């Protein structure tokens, strides 16, 4: 029975992915900053553990408690919406600490066991905003695009050790709490108010969106199908942006 470790399981994509793997008889280690056992149905194949991907000690404790894993899913992330001109460097650093450096730190923490066993899969969840540039998302997009580039280079490093690395790129997911998560980091100067109104109106008219289950299915494919492409778009809107990614 295989084990998957998933970061950012408090809601949305991470929670859905944890349930998806549980339903298919995997051992699941679901992590979040403050563990809550009631988020998923009780199971002897489920462990809910604490993790802050920006804290090296937290990562060390998690890896020690988790033991051997077969698949790492880096899903933990935070959102941010705002014009660059009005974005504080403190906010920009917060975004990169979680979305980019947190992903790198988690990969680094599990790599020794993957390399020694010459087996393992790493799935990094980024975003379809890296496929099509959008206004008011420059910092967030940069944090996710950096993970894309990091992942593609990492894959070359790990190929000699039979460790696979994949990317899942979800689209916009109104059903999740991601938008609420980003509200505290909205930084839009008055000069950009009209642009922001137009952007929000366009989003409201969009009929194609991503569901949490779309992401769970894409992560499952990345974890289990060696022939899957390195980049997998997840969700109708993401697939529409890059249909060639999902042959």
Which secondary structure elements does this structure contain, and how are they paired or packed?
Layout: E1 3-6, H1 12-23, E2 27-32, E3 46-50, H2 56-66, E4 71-74, H3 89-117, E5 121-125, H4 138-158, E6 164-170, H5 178-183, H6 193-205, H7 212-224, E7 231-234, H8 236-241
Parallel strand pairs: 1-2, 1-4, 2-3, 4-5, 5-6, 6-7
Write up this protein.
With 247 residues, the protein is of the alpha/beta class. It has a single domain (3-245), classed as Rossmann fold (3-Layer(aba) Sandwich), CATH 3.40.50.720. Helices cover 45% and strands 14% of the residues. It is built from eight helices and seven strands, in the order βαββαβαβαβαααβα. Strands 3-2-1-4-5-6-7 form a seven-stranded parallel sheet, with helices on both faces. The mean pLDDT is 93.
Question: Key features?
Answer:
45% helix, alpha/beta, Rossmann fold, 247 residues, seven-stranded parallel β-sheet, 14% strand
